[in-house]
Design a protein that fits this description.
The complex is a heterodimer of chains A (95) and B (492). By secondary structure, chain A is mostly helical. Chain A is built from three helices and two strands. In chain B, helix 5 (161-168) runs parallel beside helix 6. Classes of the chains: A mainly alpha (95), B alpha/beta (492).
Protein backbone atom coordinates (compact mmCIF):
# COMPACT_ATOMS: atom_id res chain seq x y z
CA UNK A 1 0.00 0.00 0.00
CA UNK A 2 1.23 3.49 -0.63
CA UNK A 3 -0.13 6.82 0.53
CA UNK A 4 -0.62 10.11 -1.26
CA UNK A 5 -0.62 13.67 0.05
CA UNK A 6 -4.32 13.60 0.93
CA UNK A 7 -3.91 10.48 3.02
CA UNK A 8 -0.91 11.95 4.82
CA UNK A 9 -2.99 15.06 5.51
CA UNK A 10 -5.74 12.84 6.91
CA UNK A 11 -3.32 10.99 9.19
CA UNK A 12 -1.84 14.32 10.37
CA UNK A 13 -5.35 15.45 11.19
CA UNK A 14 -6.04 12.22 13.15
CA UNK A 15 -2.74 12.72 15.00
CA UNK A 16 -3.51 16.40 15.66
CA UNK A 17 -0.28 17.63 14.13
CA UNK A 18 -0.58 20.79 12.02
CA UNK A 19 1.35 20.43 8.76
CA UNK A 20 1.99 22.83 5.92
CA UNK A 21 1.54 21.62 2.34
CA UNK A 22 5.33 21.55 1.97
CA UNK A 23 5.65 19.36 5.06
CA UNK A 24 2.98 17.01 3.77
CA UNK A 25 4.71 16.75 0.38
CA UNK A 26 8.03 16.01 2.10
CA UNK A 27 6.48 13.34 4.27
CA UNK A 28 4.84 11.37 1.44
CA UNK A 29 8.02 9.66 0.16
CA UNK A 30 9.37 9.10 3.70
CA UNK A 31 6.10 7.56 4.75
CA UNK A 32 6.02 5.29 1.71
CA UNK A 33 9.63 4.18 2.20
CA UNK A 34 8.87 3.09 5.74
CA UNK A 35 5.60 1.39 4.76
CA UNK A 36 7.27 -0.52 1.93
CA UNK A 37 9.99 -1.62 4.33
CA UNK A 38 7.61 -2.86 7.06
CA UNK A 39 5.40 -4.58 4.49
CA UNK A 40 8.03 -7.34 4.16
CA UNK A 41 6.13 -8.87 7.09
CA UNK A 42 3.52 -9.96 4.53
CA UNK A 43 5.86 -12.78 3.46
CA UNK A 44 5.79 -14.34 6.97
CA UNK A 45 3.32 -17.18 7.34
CA UNK A 46 1.30 -16.32 10.43
CA UNK A 47 -1.63 -18.65 9.85
CA UNK A 48 -2.85 -19.97 13.18
CA UNK A 49 -0.49 -17.70 15.15
CA UNK A 50 -2.05 -15.70 17.97
CA UNK A 51 -0.98 -12.06 18.17
CA UNK A 52 1.21 -11.46 21.20
CA UNK A 53 -0.54 -9.69 24.04
CA UNK A 54 1.74 -9.96 27.08
CA UNK A 55 5.45 -10.29 26.42
CA UNK A 56 6.11 -11.78 29.86
CA UNK A 57 3.25 -13.74 31.37
CA UNK A 58 1.74 -11.75 34.20
CA UNK A 59 -1.53 -11.70 36.07
CA UNK A 60 -3.76 -8.69 36.00
CA UNK A 61 -3.96 -7.55 39.57
CA UNK A 62 -6.90 -5.90 41.26
CA UNK A 63 -6.37 -3.57 44.16
CA UNK A 64 -8.79 -2.78 46.94
CA UNK A 65 -11.37 -0.21 45.89
CA UNK A 66 -10.20 2.48 48.26
CA UNK A 67 -8.74 5.94 47.75
CA UNK A 68 -4.97 5.65 48.17
CA UNK A 69 -3.96 8.82 46.41
CA UNK A 70 -5.33 12.25 45.69
CA UNK A 71 -5.80 15.55 47.46
CA UNK A 72 -3.12 17.05 45.23
CA UNK A 73 -5.08 19.33 42.91
CA UNK A 74 -2.66 22.21 43.17
CA UNK A 75 0.31 19.93 42.44
CA UNK A 76 -1.42 18.68 39.33
CA UNK A 77 -2.29 22.16 38.11
CA UNK A 78 1.18 23.53 38.79
CA UNK A 79 2.52 22.57 35.37
CA UNK A 80 -0.54 23.63 33.37
CA UNK A 81 0.04 26.34 30.75
CA UNK A 82 -3.15 27.91 32.08
CA UNK A 83 -5.25 27.09 35.14
CA UNK A 84 -8.29 28.96 36.47
CA UNK A 85 -10.40 28.42 39.56
CA UNK A 86 -8.80 25.07 40.22
CA UNK A 87 -9.33 23.78 36.67
CA UNK A 88 -7.28 23.37 33.51
CA UNK A 89 -8.22 26.22 31.21
CA UNK A 90 -8.58 25.81 27.43
CA UNK A 91 -9.74 28.07 24.59
CA UNK A 92 -13.50 28.52 24.49
CA UNK A 93 -15.29 25.59 22.85
CA UNK A 94 -18.91 26.82 23.05
CA UNK A 95 -19.97 30.20 21.74
CA UNK B 1 40.79 14.43 43.70
CA UNK B 2 40.23 13.84 40.00
CA UNK B 3 41.13 10.16 40.45
CA UNK B 4 37.91 9.69 42.41
CA UNK B 5 36.00 9.97 39.13
CA UNK B 6 37.87 6.97 37.73
CA UNK B 7 36.71 4.60 40.45
CA UNK B 8 34.04 1.99 39.94
CA UNK B 9 30.92 2.05 42.11
CA UNK B 10 32.23 -1.03 43.96
CA UNK B 11 35.49 0.82 44.67
CA UNK B 12 33.65 3.94 45.82
CA UNK B 13 31.59 1.81 48.17
CA UNK B 14 34.70 0.20 49.67
CA UNK B 15 36.58 3.49 49.92
CA UNK B 16 33.71 5.25 51.65
CA UNK B 17 33.23 2.36 54.04
CA UNK B 18 36.94 2.33 54.86
CA UNK B 19 37.14 6.09 55.24
CA UNK B 20 39.71 6.51 52.43
CA UNK B 21 37.73 9.54 51.27
CA UNK B 22 34.46 11.24 52.12
CA UNK B 23 31.27 11.20 50.06
CA UNK B 24 31.53 14.98 49.88
CA UNK B 25 34.93 14.70 48.19
CA UNK B 26 33.45 12.27 45.67
CA UNK B 27 30.47 14.52 44.95
CA UNK B 28 32.70 17.58 44.58
CA UNK B 29 34.99 15.74 42.17
CA UNK B 30 32.02 14.69 40.05
CA UNK B 31 30.36 18.11 40.16
CA UNK B 32 33.63 19.57 38.87
CA UNK B 33 33.86 16.92 36.14
CA UNK B 34 30.27 17.63 35.05
CA UNK B 35 30.96 21.37 34.86
CA UNK B 36 34.20 20.76 32.93
CA UNK B 37 32.46 18.39 30.52
CA UNK B 38 29.81 20.72 29.12
CA UNK B 39 31.28 20.48 25.62
CA UNK B 40 29.88 16.93 25.51
CA UNK B 41 26.32 18.22 26.03
CA UNK B 42 25.63 15.13 28.14
CA UNK B 43 23.58 16.85 30.82
CA UNK B 44 20.41 18.85 30.20
CA UNK B 45 20.21 19.97 33.85
CA UNK B 46 22.98 19.96 36.46
CA UNK B 47 22.00 19.50 40.11
CA UNK B 48 25.29 19.77 42.04
CA UNK B 49 23.41 20.78 45.19
CA UNK B 50 21.46 17.51 45.18
CA UNK B 51 24.67 15.51 44.76
CA UNK B 52 26.23 17.37 47.69
CA UNK B 53 23.16 16.94 49.91
CA UNK B 54 23.16 13.18 49.31
CA UNK B 55 26.91 13.10 49.97
CA UNK B 56 26.55 14.90 53.28
CA UNK B 57 23.81 12.47 54.26
CA UNK B 58 26.15 9.62 53.29
CA UNK B 59 28.99 11.00 55.40
CA UNK B 60 26.61 11.30 58.36
CA UNK B 61 25.35 7.77 57.74
CA UNK B 62 28.92 6.50 57.76
CA UNK B 63 29.64 8.20 61.06
CA UNK B 64 26.51 6.60 62.47
CA UNK B 65 27.40 3.22 60.96
CA UNK B 66 24.30 3.25 58.76
CA UNK B 67 25.66 3.23 55.22
CA UNK B 68 23.14 2.22 52.56
CA UNK B 69 23.90 0.24 49.39
CA UNK B 70 24.58 3.36 47.29
CA UNK B 71 25.51 5.89 49.97
CA UNK B 72 27.77 8.52 48.45
CA UNK B 73 27.53 7.26 44.87
CA UNK B 74 26.82 10.11 42.41
CA UNK B 75 24.60 9.12 39.51
CA UNK B 76 23.19 10.76 36.41
CA UNK B 77 19.50 10.23 35.63
CA UNK B 78 18.22 10.02 32.07
CA UNK B 79 15.81 12.85 31.32
CA UNK B 80 13.05 10.29 30.72
CA UNK B 81 12.71 9.69 34.49
CA UNK B 82 10.40 12.04 36.38
CA UNK B 83 12.44 13.75 39.10
CA UNK B 84 10.55 15.74 41.69
CA UNK B 85 11.02 19.48 41.22
CA UNK B 86 13.72 19.01 38.57
CA UNK B 87 13.03 19.59 34.86
CA UNK B 88 11.94 16.41 33.12
CA UNK B 89 11.53 16.91 29.39
CA UNK B 90 12.28 13.60 27.64
CA UNK B 91 14.55 15.65 25.40
CA UNK B 92 11.53 17.40 23.89
CA UNK B 93 10.44 21.00 23.47
CA UNK B 94 6.89 19.94 24.21
CA UNK B 95 7.85 19.27 27.85
CA UNK B 96 10.20 22.22 28.31
CA UNK B 97 9.86 23.57 31.82
CA UNK B 98 7.94 20.55 33.17
CA UNK B 99 8.83 19.99 36.80
CA UNK B 100 7.13 16.82 38.06
CA UNK B 101 5.57 17.00 41.52
CA UNK B 102 6.52 13.32 41.92
CA UNK B 103 9.53 11.03 41.55
CA UNK B 104 9.76 7.95 39.31
CA UNK B 105 9.86 4.66 41.21
CA UNK B 106 13.30 3.73 39.86
CA UNK B 107 14.99 7.05 40.67
CA UNK B 108 13.22 7.10 44.06
CA UNK B 109 14.71 3.68 44.84
CA UNK B 110 18.19 4.86 43.88
CA UNK B 111 17.85 7.93 46.07
CA UNK B 112 16.44 5.91 48.97
CA UNK B 113 19.53 3.70 48.66
CA UNK B 114 21.71 6.77 49.26
CA UNK B 115 22.68 7.75 45.71
CA UNK B 116 23.03 11.41 44.80
CA UNK B 117 21.81 12.95 41.56
CA UNK B 118 24.35 14.92 39.50
CA UNK B 119 21.75 16.00 36.95
CA UNK B 120 19.51 14.93 34.10
CA UNK B 121 20.99 13.31 31.03
CA UNK B 122 20.42 14.26 27.42
CA UNK B 123 18.69 11.77 25.15
CA UNK B 124 16.91 11.39 21.84
CA UNK B 125 13.51 13.06 21.95
CA UNK B 126 11.09 10.67 23.71
CA UNK B 127 13.86 8.04 23.35
CA UNK B 128 13.20 7.87 19.60
CA UNK B 129 16.58 7.69 17.96
CA UNK B 130 19.86 5.81 17.85
CA UNK B 131 22.32 8.72 17.79
CA UNK B 132 21.02 11.30 20.28
CA UNK B 133 20.56 13.69 17.35
CA UNK B 134 16.78 14.04 17.76
CA UNK B 135 17.15 15.76 21.15
CA UNK B 136 15.68 19.25 21.50
CA UNK B 137 18.91 20.11 23.33
CA UNK B 138 21.09 19.13 20.39
CA UNK B 139 23.20 16.00 20.08
CA UNK B 140 25.48 14.64 22.74
CA UNK B 141 29.06 14.48 21.47
CA UNK B 142 30.87 11.23 22.19
CA UNK B 143 34.01 11.57 24.29
CA UNK B 144 35.64 9.16 21.81
CA UNK B 145 37.49 10.27 18.66
CA UNK B 146 38.74 8.20 15.74
CA UNK B 147 42.50 7.71 15.73
CA UNK B 148 42.80 8.90 12.12
CA UNK B 149 44.00 12.35 13.16
CA UNK B 150 40.66 13.83 12.09
CA UNK B 151 38.51 15.64 14.58
CA UNK B 152 35.08 14.36 13.52
CA UNK B 153 32.44 14.61 16.24
CA UNK B 154 30.98 11.15 16.82
CA UNK B 155 27.65 10.02 18.20
CA UNK B 156 27.57 8.31 21.61
CA UNK B 157 24.61 6.30 20.28
CA UNK B 158 21.06 6.61 21.46
CA UNK B 159 18.64 7.03 22.82
CA UNK B 160 20.55 6.96 26.16
CA UNK B 161 23.37 8.99 24.59
CA UNK B 162 23.90 11.43 27.45
CA UNK B 163 23.93 8.50 29.88
CA UNK B 164 26.59 6.64 27.87
CA UNK B 165 28.78 9.70 27.32
CA UNK B 166 28.61 10.65 31.02
CA UNK B 167 29.87 7.24 32.16
CA UNK B 168 32.54 6.99 29.45
CA UNK B 169 33.86 10.48 30.16
CA UNK B 170 33.81 10.14 33.96
CA UNK B 171 30.93 12.58 34.46
CA UNK B 172 28.97 10.03 36.55
CA UNK B 173 29.85 6.86 38.42
CA UNK B 174 26.78 5.19 36.94
CA UNK B 175 23.56 6.23 35.25
CA UNK B 176 20.05 5.15 34.48
CA UNK B 177 19.11 4.37 30.92
CA UNK B 178 15.99 3.07 29.28
CA UNK B 179 15.80 0.54 26.49
CA UNK B 180 12.84 0.17 24.14
CA UNK B 181 14.71 -1.29 21.17
CA UNK B 182 18.38 -1.07 22.11
CA UNK B 183 18.63 2.34 23.77
CA UNK B 184 20.81 1.09 26.64
CA UNK B 185 22.88 -1.47 24.77
CA UNK B 186 23.81 0.32 21.54
CA UNK B 187 25.09 3.48 23.29
CA UNK B 188 26.94 1.32 25.83
CA UNK B 189 28.67 -0.46 22.93
CA UNK B 190 29.51 2.84 21.18
CA UNK B 191 31.17 4.29 24.28
CA UNK B 192 32.99 1.28 25.73
CA UNK B 193 30.85 0.78 28.85
CA UNK B 194 28.41 -1.84 30.19
CA UNK B 195 24.64 -1.63 30.14
CA UNK B 196 21.88 -4.10 30.93
CA UNK B 197 18.22 -4.15 30.00
CA UNK B 198 16.51 -6.51 32.45
CA UNK B 199 13.51 -8.71 31.74
CA UNK B 200 10.42 -6.68 30.86
CA UNK B 201 8.62 -5.99 34.15
CA UNK B 202 11.67 -6.12 36.45
CA UNK B 203 11.96 -2.34 36.77
CA UNK B 204 8.88 -0.26 37.35
CA UNK B 205 7.89 2.00 34.48
CA UNK B 206 6.01 4.31 36.84
CA UNK B 207 7.22 7.87 36.40
CA UNK B 208 9.20 7.08 33.25
CA UNK B 209 7.90 9.08 30.29
CA UNK B 210 6.22 6.42 28.15
CA UNK B 211 7.38 5.69 24.59
CA UNK B 212 6.24 2.13 23.75
CA UNK B 213 4.81 0.63 26.90
CA UNK B 214 5.09 -3.06 25.93
CA UNK B 215 8.82 -2.61 25.28
CA UNK B 216 10.11 0.15 27.61
CA UNK B 217 12.45 -1.06 30.36
CA UNK B 218 14.81 0.85 32.62
CA UNK B 219 18.30 -0.42 33.32
CA UNK B 220 21.70 0.71 34.56
CA UNK B 221 24.78 1.71 32.58
CA UNK B 222 28.17 1.74 34.27
CA UNK B 223 31.85 0.94 33.78
CA UNK B 224 31.78 -2.66 34.91
CA UNK B 225 29.51 -5.66 35.01
CA UNK B 226 29.64 -5.65 38.82
CA UNK B 227 28.53 -2.00 38.92
CA UNK B 228 25.57 -2.85 36.69
CA UNK B 229 24.60 -5.67 39.06
CA UNK B 230 24.85 -3.34 42.07
CA UNK B 231 22.64 -0.69 40.44
CA UNK B 232 20.11 -3.12 38.97
CA UNK B 233 19.52 -4.71 42.38
CA UNK B 234 18.41 -1.33 43.67
CA UNK B 235 16.41 -0.32 40.58
CA UNK B 236 14.44 -3.56 40.20
CA UNK B 237 11.48 -4.74 42.25
CA UNK B 238 7.72 -5.00 42.33
CA UNK B 239 5.74 -1.78 42.12
CA UNK B 240 1.94 -1.88 42.42
CA UNK B 241 1.81 1.41 40.50
CA UNK B 242 2.92 -0.33 37.28
CA UNK B 243 0.37 -2.89 36.01
CA UNK B 244 3.13 -4.83 34.19
CA UNK B 245 5.54 -4.88 37.13
CA UNK B 246 6.58 -8.43 38.04
CA UNK B 247 5.69 -9.41 41.60
CA UNK B 248 8.90 -11.35 42.22
CA UNK B 249 11.74 -11.03 44.70
CA UNK B 250 14.87 -9.28 43.41
CA UNK B 251 17.78 -11.76 43.23
CA UNK B 252 21.12 -10.86 44.78
CA UNK B 253 22.79 -10.46 41.42
CA UNK B 254 26.04 -9.05 42.76
CA UNK B 255 26.50 -11.91 45.20
CA UNK B 256 25.67 -14.35 42.41
CA UNK B 257 28.37 -13.06 40.05
CA UNK B 258 30.57 -15.86 38.77
CA UNK B 259 32.56 -16.10 35.56
CA UNK B 260 32.80 -19.87 35.81
CA UNK B 261 30.59 -21.01 32.94
CA UNK B 262 31.27 -24.75 33.20
CA UNK B 263 28.28 -26.72 31.97
CA UNK B 264 26.72 -23.70 30.27
CA UNK B 265 25.89 -23.62 26.58
CA UNK B 266 26.28 -20.43 24.58
CA UNK B 267 24.04 -20.09 21.55
CA UNK B 268 25.49 -18.50 18.43
CA UNK B 269 22.60 -17.52 16.14
CA UNK B 270 23.32 -18.12 12.47
CA UNK B 271 20.94 -15.38 11.36
CA UNK B 272 22.95 -12.66 13.14
CA UNK B 273 25.77 -12.99 10.62
CA UNK B 274 24.47 -10.42 8.17
CA UNK B 275 25.81 -8.71 5.06
CA UNK B 276 27.42 -5.31 5.37
CA UNK B 277 28.74 -5.78 8.88
CA UNK B 278 32.45 -4.89 9.14
CA UNK B 279 34.77 -7.92 9.35
CA UNK B 280 36.15 -6.52 12.61
CA UNK B 281 32.78 -7.01 14.27
CA UNK B 282 32.47 -10.62 13.12
CA UNK B 283 36.07 -11.18 14.27
CA UNK B 284 35.26 -9.79 17.72
CA UNK B 285 32.21 -12.03 17.86
CA UNK B 286 34.46 -15.05 17.17
CA UNK B 287 36.80 -13.86 19.91
CA UNK B 288 33.82 -13.61 22.27
CA UNK B 289 32.96 -17.24 21.53
CA UNK B 290 36.53 -18.24 22.41
CA UNK B 291 36.45 -16.21 25.65
CA UNK B 292 33.26 -17.96 26.74
CA UNK B 293 34.73 -21.34 25.77
CA UNK B 294 37.77 -20.46 27.88
CA UNK B 295 35.39 -19.74 30.79
CA UNK B 296 34.06 -23.28 30.50
CA UNK B 297 31.04 -22.79 28.28
CA UNK B 298 30.27 -24.85 25.21
CA UNK B 299 29.33 -22.89 22.07
CA UNK B 300 26.40 -24.29 20.09
CA UNK B 301 24.91 -23.13 16.79
CA UNK B 302 21.31 -22.01 17.12
CA UNK B 303 18.74 -20.63 14.73
CA UNK B 304 16.43 -17.64 15.26
CA UNK B 305 14.65 -17.81 11.91
CA UNK B 306 12.51 -14.66 12.22
CA UNK B 307 15.42 -12.36 13.08
CA UNK B 308 15.20 -10.39 9.82
CA UNK B 309 11.58 -9.50 10.56
CA UNK B 310 12.30 -8.07 14.01
CA UNK B 311 13.07 -4.51 12.89
CA UNK B 312 10.01 -4.08 10.64
CA UNK B 313 7.88 -5.60 13.42
CA UNK B 314 9.36 -3.15 15.89
CA UNK B 315 8.74 -0.21 13.55
CA UNK B 316 5.04 -1.02 13.50
CA UNK B 317 4.55 -1.80 17.18
CA UNK B 318 6.71 0.92 18.73
CA UNK B 319 5.25 3.80 16.66
CA UNK B 320 1.72 2.46 17.24
CA UNK B 321 2.22 2.50 21.00
CA UNK B 322 3.99 5.86 20.78
CA UNK B 323 1.16 7.47 18.83
CA UNK B 324 -1.18 6.44 21.62
CA UNK B 325 1.14 7.38 24.52
CA UNK B 326 2.05 10.75 23.05
CA UNK B 327 -1.59 11.76 22.59
CA UNK B 328 -1.37 13.23 26.09
CA UNK B 329 0.80 16.14 24.89
CA UNK B 330 -2.04 18.46 24.03
CA UNK B 331 -1.02 21.78 25.56
CA UNK B 332 -3.55 21.48 28.37
CA UNK B 333 -2.01 19.81 31.39
CA UNK B 334 1.72 20.45 31.09
CA UNK B 335 4.43 21.68 28.80
CA UNK B 336 4.12 23.83 25.73
CA UNK B 337 0.94 25.50 24.49
CA UNK B 338 0.78 27.27 21.13
CA UNK B 339 -1.82 30.01 21.04
CA UNK B 340 -2.82 32.43 18.32
CA UNK B 341 -5.32 29.94 16.91
CA UNK B 342 -9.06 30.04 17.21
CA UNK B 343 -10.33 26.65 18.30
CA UNK B 344 -9.33 24.07 20.90
CA UNK B 345 -8.67 21.58 18.10
CA UNK B 346 -6.34 24.02 16.35
CA UNK B 347 -4.56 24.62 19.64
CA UNK B 348 -3.83 20.89 19.95
CA UNK B 349 -2.52 20.66 16.39
CA UNK B 350 -0.44 23.84 16.61
CA UNK B 351 1.03 22.82 19.97
CA UNK B 352 2.02 19.39 18.71
CA UNK B 353 3.42 20.83 15.47
CA UNK B 354 5.59 23.25 17.42
CA UNK B 355 6.55 20.93 20.26
CA UNK B 356 7.53 17.68 18.54
CA UNK B 357 10.63 17.21 16.42
CA UNK B 358 10.73 15.58 12.99
CA UNK B 359 11.47 11.99 14.08
CA UNK B 360 8.77 12.02 16.76
CA UNK B 361 6.23 13.37 14.26
CA UNK B 362 7.26 10.71 11.76
CA UNK B 363 6.69 7.94 14.31
CA UNK B 364 3.39 9.34 15.57
CA UNK B 365 2.21 9.55 11.96
CA UNK B 366 3.27 5.97 11.15
CA UNK B 367 1.72 4.76 14.38
CA UNK B 368 -1.53 6.58 13.74
CA UNK B 369 -1.67 5.13 10.24
CA UNK B 370 -1.07 1.50 11.25
CA UNK B 371 -3.74 1.77 13.94
CA UNK B 372 -6.29 3.51 11.75
CA UNK B 373 -9.52 1.93 10.56
CA UNK B 374 -8.96 -0.47 7.71
CA UNK B 375 -5.21 -0.90 8.29
CA UNK B 376 -5.11 -2.18 11.87
CA UNK B 377 -5.16 -5.89 11.00
CA UNK B 378 -2.82 -5.62 8.04
CA UNK B 379 -0.14 -3.85 10.05
CA UNK B 380 -0.60 -3.95 13.82
CA UNK B 381 -2.18 -7.39 14.25
CA UNK B 382 0.23 -8.85 11.70
CA UNK B 383 3.19 -7.36 13.59
CA UNK B 384 1.93 -8.78 16.90
CA UNK B 385 1.69 -12.20 15.25
CA UNK B 386 5.25 -11.98 13.98
CA UNK B 387 6.25 -10.83 17.45
CA UNK B 388 4.79 -14.10 18.79
CA UNK B 389 6.97 -16.00 16.31
CA UNK B 390 10.07 -14.06 17.36
CA UNK B 391 9.37 -14.87 20.99
CA UNK B 392 8.82 -18.53 20.02
CA UNK B 393 12.19 -18.55 18.21
CA UNK B 394 13.92 -17.60 21.46
CA UNK B 395 11.96 -20.16 23.47
CA UNK B 396 13.06 -22.88 21.02
CA UNK B 397 16.67 -21.68 21.05
CA UNK B 398 16.82 -21.70 24.85
CA UNK B 399 16.03 -25.40 24.82
CA UNK B 400 19.52 -25.88 23.40
CA UNK B 401 21.49 -23.13 25.14
CA UNK B 402 21.61 -21.02 28.32
CA UNK B 403 22.67 -17.66 26.95
CA UNK B 404 23.05 -16.17 23.47
CA UNK B 405 26.09 -14.23 22.24
CA UNK B 406 25.94 -11.72 19.37
CA UNK B 407 27.52 -8.38 18.49
CA UNK B 408 25.68 -5.43 20.07
CA UNK B 409 25.59 -3.17 17.01
CA UNK B 410 26.42 -3.60 13.31
CA UNK B 411 29.03 -0.81 13.39
CA UNK B 412 31.17 1.28 15.70
CA UNK B 413 30.06 4.84 16.51
CA UNK B 414 29.43 6.93 13.40
CA UNK B 415 29.83 10.65 12.84
CA UNK B 416 27.13 13.12 13.82
CA UNK B 417 25.06 13.90 10.74
CA UNK B 418 26.17 10.78 8.83
CA UNK B 419 22.87 8.91 9.06
CA UNK B 420 20.25 11.57 9.69
CA UNK B 421 19.09 11.75 6.06
CA UNK B 422 17.82 8.16 5.93
CA UNK B 423 15.52 7.01 8.75
CA UNK B 424 15.77 3.32 7.80
CA UNK B 425 19.60 3.39 7.77
CA UNK B 426 19.38 4.81 11.30
CA UNK B 427 16.88 2.13 12.37
CA UNK B 428 19.29 -0.62 11.22
CA UNK B 429 21.61 0.29 14.10
CA UNK B 430 19.39 -1.73 16.38
CA UNK B 431 19.19 -4.84 14.21
CA UNK B 432 20.87 -7.03 16.87
CA UNK B 433 19.22 -5.35 19.87
CA UNK B 434 15.57 -5.27 18.85
CA UNK B 435 14.71 -9.01 18.84
CA UNK B 436 15.42 -9.35 22.59
CA UNK B 437 13.27 -6.26 23.21
CA UNK B 438 10.35 -7.74 21.30
CA UNK B 439 10.67 -10.93 23.37
CA UNK B 440 11.04 -9.06 26.69
CA UNK B 441 14.33 -10.84 27.46
CA UNK B 442 17.23 -9.61 29.59
CA UNK B 443 20.16 -8.48 27.45
CA UNK B 444 23.43 -6.72 28.06
CA UNK B 445 26.28 -5.07 26.19
CA UNK B 446 29.84 -5.46 27.46
CA UNK B 447 32.93 -3.90 25.84
CA UNK B 448 34.92 -6.36 23.73
CA UNK B 449 37.69 -4.28 22.17
CA UNK B 450 38.56 -1.42 19.84
CA UNK B 451 38.21 -1.37 16.08
CA UNK B 452 40.95 -0.24 13.67
CA UNK B 453 39.95 3.38 14.21
CA UNK B 454 40.32 3.10 17.96
CA UNK B 455 36.58 3.01 18.67
CA UNK B 456 34.89 0.64 21.14
CA UNK B 457 32.90 -2.40 20.02
CA UNK B 458 30.46 -4.26 22.23
CA UNK B 459 29.40 -7.86 22.66
CA UNK B 460 25.78 -8.63 23.40
CA UNK B 461 24.37 -11.33 25.66
CA UNK B 462 20.73 -12.36 25.67
CA UNK B 463 19.30 -14.53 28.45
CA UNK B 464 16.19 -16.50 29.27
CA UNK B 465 13.43 -14.45 30.80
CA UNK B 466 14.27 -13.60 34.44
CA UNK B 467 17.83 -14.92 34.01
CA UNK B 468 19.68 -11.63 34.45
CA UNK B 469 22.23 -13.64 36.44
CA UNK B 470 23.15 -15.77 33.44
CA UNK B 471 23.57 -12.65 31.32
CA UNK B 472 25.68 -10.87 33.94
CA UNK B 473 27.88 -13.93 34.49
CA UNK B 474 28.60 -14.43 30.80
CA UNK B 475 29.32 -10.70 30.49
CA UNK B 476 31.67 -10.96 33.46
CA UNK B 477 33.54 -13.82 31.78
CA UNK B 478 33.99 -11.65 28.69
CA UNK B 479 34.98 -8.59 30.75
CA UNK B 480 37.70 -10.55 32.54
CA UNK B 481 39.13 -11.88 29.30
CA UNK B 482 38.75 -8.83 27.06
CA UNK B 483 40.73 -6.72 29.53
CA UNK B 484 39.06 -3.63 28.09
CA UNK B 485 40.48 -0.70 30.05
CA UNK B 486 40.53 1.90 27.29
CA UNK B 487 39.19 5.32 28.13
CA UNK B 488 38.74 8.25 25.77
CA UNK B 489 41.51 10.86 25.87
CA UNK B 490 40.23 14.05 27.49
CA UNK B 491 39.78 16.76 24.81
CA UNK B 492 36.78 18.53 26.31
Amino acid sequence: MSVNADQVRHVARLARIAMSDAEVEAMVPEFNNILTWVEQLAEVDTDGVEPLTAVIANELRLRDDVVDDGDCRDDILKNAPEAQHGFFAVPKVIE
Amino acid sequence: MAELTTKTIAELREGLRGGDFSAREVAEAYNAAVAAGRALNAYTVETPELALAAADAADKARAAGELKPLSGVPLGIKDLFATQGVDTTAGSNILKGFKPPYESTVSAKLKAAGAGMLGKLNMDEFAMGSSNETSAYGPVVSPWKRNDGGNAALTPGGSSGGSAAAVAAGLAAGVTGTDTGGSIRQPAAFTGICGIKPTYGRCSRWGIVAFASSLDQAGPMARTVRDCAILLEVMAGFDPKDATSLDLPVPEWEKGLSSDLKGKKVGIPTEYRIDGVPAEIDALWDKGVEWLRDAGAEPVRISLPHTKYALPTYYIIAPAEASSNLARYDGVRYGLREMGVKSLDDMYAATRAAGFGAEVKRRIMIGTYVLSAGFYDAYFTKAQKVRSLIKRDFAEAFKACDVILTPTAPSAAFGLGEKTADPIAMYLNDVFAVPASLAGLPAMSVPGGLDGQGLPLGLHLIGRELDEQGVLNAALAIEERAGFNHRPKVWW
